[in-house]
Structure formats: structure tokens, C-alpha cells
Amino acid sequence: MADLVEPKLKPNSDLPHITIDASGTEYKVSVFLFNSNGEIKFIDANSFNSAVFQTIHTTPFLLGTLSLNDELNMVSLNKVDTGFDSLAFSEYNTTSDGQEFLRIKISSKSSTNVACQYTDEVLLDKIFVVKNKNNSVINNNKLVNYNFVDVIYANLANKKKEWSTDLLNVVKQQGAQPRRGQSPVNSGRALKHIIRHFIGDDAIIDEDNWDDGQGSVYLTLPAGAPAFTAIAEIMKTYVSTDESGGILTYYNGAFQLQSIRKLINKIYKNTNSPPNPWRHLAGASQVILGDNFGGGIKIKTNDSRQTYSNKEGVDTLGKDFNYIPVDTTNITFIETQPDATMTSLNKKEVTQFNSKTKQITIHSNQGNLSAVTKASSVEGLPGGKEQQLNIDENTAYSTEKTRIFKMTDRNSTMHYGTIKLQKQLLESLTKATFAVPGNIDMSANKFLYMTADLNEKNKFAHKIPGFWYITKNITTLSKGTFASSIECVKLDKPK
């Protein structure tokens, strides 16, 4: 981000830090506040209370809250130790110009294979922008809370610029002002253009993981509105090249736009010669996991008589895969609501009106569960054609439907019902919530593999093994605690 004024910090290895012990693991935590005036504040052990990180499948950004102890107004009135000999003690002042930032680095000790030496494994090292600040009291402890989000968010939320899809259709005339075409443009290209327009960096788009799609849009950003207004509007009607809905993500400093179908198909491959960017899994010579794989968990009981008998897990990830154990008492399943297919998941019938030809077209066969099954490619998951979408379609009341009116192009409108229903599924399918040791990388819009260490399995337990789509990750770091609460949904089930 061009507008960011980052302070000159020492090399990563020399950053001042506090130490947090959680579940037998020692974590180094470096937290700095800095502003547009070049002032910097190192958050020491006395000030640090907690940091909560959150990813949600409906937004591409990592966001969270840093909570600092504020007894005797220490945060506002005291001079602070920067942790650097050259700077000694300095003033730090909160600014009201939206240019207040956080750098948070978390690392843990991990052993190397050389002479039992230890090195730091970096779990997180990012810069965030502070959205707002508020005060609270918890257990008689005064806190100052800094709500933060990925630093790139600032340009998309705060920068005010003119933008229209006409910018992609400008025709230059000799001796005249550029003429605006006022014609629709490809939705994916429009989305790519507005992100680059507001951020000012071509590299902000991951071209290798960007699908322009097949729909089109004509849009002008209202005066004074943030880029997010246009981004949200484009994503409503975006149709991928494989006729699926799209997911906008932000990984490793770049935006990605991929279809739900592609995300499913890239989770894993069975091959002997894995190409990049797939990573080869030790102990499973035939299985190559994609970069959207977040990890695996195994549901366990305290019954010593139980033995690992889940053939699905062995066949998919290999017997040597390192699962994260989750006790049955620490996981909660929520089944799909009984009337889901008559309410939120009923058929979506889309009526299209063409303003030029004055013609009306009704798309009645796209916004149903059969179309969503095709668009989601659940047959690409373990079990193949023996799997189906994890929802039971209502046949007794099949006439129940939601009517939608659209004035977009045919490609966008024809698939709109499918895409809307597809995204609603993510809120309605069988849901699992569980806790694991701190794991920020197991983020929303990735997949995890779940298996169960059970000898006796009922019908529901048979649906558990397989890949689950992560919809939320809330990770809490505090003194003595580093833990993640994961929420995920199951897309498929056995026929």
C-alpha cells in the first residue's frame, strides 16, 4: 500500500517480543503500534491482554481485536519503551486520520533436523490498519481495544476515487475528451480493474488464480462511495467460466478469484508426479494436497477399546497423516434444519428483462439443487459418483420457489439462481464447531479433512469422513492461551 508509512524496525530475528506459554508451547509475540507521524510503540507484557483473529468466508480479509491493559491510563499517558536502545523511551499518540497501524508477529520454537538445533517457526507476520478504538471493562480490568483488519483494506474502504466500468471501454479521440462507451464489460475484468485502481499496484492480483468468468456488468461507483460498494455488487452476479459462483480471497499479499467448483477440485489429487503449486504429502505417495487445504482432524473418544478403523481416511490421506485430535466432547454438530429446502434453500426462479429488446426471459431450471450439485462438483470429492450434495430435496412441495427479477446480461441472469442457492448452502448445510490449538492458517474458505476414530458408527457418523469447508476461524491469543475455534460445513454425503 503506497500510503503506508512503516517505521524502521530491526531485522525480524531481533524484534522485541513478549513470551506466552500455552499448552506446553512457547510463543514469541511482537506487537507494534505505529502512526503516520513515525511514532512507534512496542506492546510489552504489562500492556498486552489478548489478541483475537478472525476469518469469515464472506470476506477475504483477516480481522481482529488487540486488547491492552489500561490501568491508571497507561496507554494514553505513559511514555513507552520501544524496545530499541537507540530510541529509548518515546511518545506515542493515537491519530484520527485513519493512519494508525499494527504489526503483529507470532512465532514458536520448532526443531530442525540438524544437531537438535531450534529455530523460530513464523505463524503470522502481518501489518494491519486500525479501524477503530474503544474502551471496555472485563473483570474490573480496564481495556483499550484496537479493532484491526488487513492493511490493504484501508485503500478499498477509505480512498475516494471516481470509477466506472466505462474506464475499461474508453475510446480516445483526437483533440477531444475520451468517450465513454456505456456498455457492459466482463465481470471478472471489472473486479480486477477496480481493485488495482484503488490500490495502485498491478501485483495485487494473483493472475494464476483469477477467473474472469463469463458474465458482464455495467456499473458506476456512486460519488463518495468506497470501492467495496462496487466489489460487493459485482460479486452478486459473478459467474465463473465453469458456471459456478465465485469466492474472492486474499492470500500472501494478492487477491484471488476462483469458482467454488475449482476450489473443490483443487483440494487434492491422486498422482505420482505432483506439479507445482501442489505440495506432496509425506507418507501418502499418491495424494497431493492443494494450497487451499487447511489440515486434518480426527474425532476421538476416551474409550481405549476404540481403534482406528476408518478406511476412508487411510485411503485419502494415508495412514501416516498427522491428524489433530479432537475429543467427542469438544465438537458440536448441527444438522440442516428440517424445512431448509422449503425456505432458504427453495428453488430460485429468475426473470430476466432486456431493456433494449423489451423481452422477458424466465430461467426456471437453473436455481434448483440439481443445478447446484452440478455447479459444485461434489463428485470430485472422495467417494466420487457415490457422493451427493449434503441436502435432501423436498419433493412433496416442489412448487415452492422464490421469484427474482434481474436486468443483467443473459449469462449472469441465467446462472444467478444457481449461484444464489449455492452460496446459501454454505449457511445451511451440516455444521461442525470444534476447538484446536492456535491455528490461524486453518482459515475460512479453505478445506479440512475430518475423520472419526469410532468402531461403531451410526448413519450420521458415516457422513463425517471427508473434506469440510471452513466458514469461520476465531483464534485467541492471551496469557496461557493460544486456541482456535473452527466452524465448517460438509458439502457432500454418501448416497
Characterization of this structure:
There is one protein chain. The chain has 495 residues and is an alpha+beta fold. The chain folds into four domains: 12-150, Beta Barrel (Thrombin, subunit H), CATH 2.40.10; 165-261, no CATH class; 271-335 and 430-494, Beta Barrel (Elongation Factor Tu (Ef-tu), domain 3); 340-428, no CATH class. The protein is 16% helix and 39% strand. It contains ten helices and 30 strands. It has a 15-stranded mixed beta sheet that branches. Strand 4 (48-56) and strand 5 (63-69) form a beta hairpin. Helix 3 (187-199) packs antiparallel against helix 4 (227-237) and helix 7 packs across helix 9 (416-428). The model is unreliable at 4-12, 171-176, 274-280 and 305-309 (pLDDT under 50).
What is the distance, rounded to the nearest whole angstrom, between the alpha carbons of the first and last residues? 49 Å
Question: Could you describe the largest sheet, including whether it forms a barrel?
Answer: 15 strands, mixed
Number of helices: 10
Strand content: 35-45%
CATH topology of the largest domain: Thrombin, subunit H
Structural class of the secondary structure composition? alpha+beta
What is the gyration radius calculated from CA atoms? 25 Å
CATH class of the largest domain: Mainly Beta
Parts with pLDDT < 50 across at least 5 consecutive residues: 4-12, 171-176, 274-280, 305-309
Count of beta strands: 30
Reported CATH architecture of the largest domain = Beta Barrel
Mean pLDDT: 80
What count of structural domains?
A: 4
From the spread of the alpha carbons, the general shape counts as globular
Helical residue percent? 10-25%
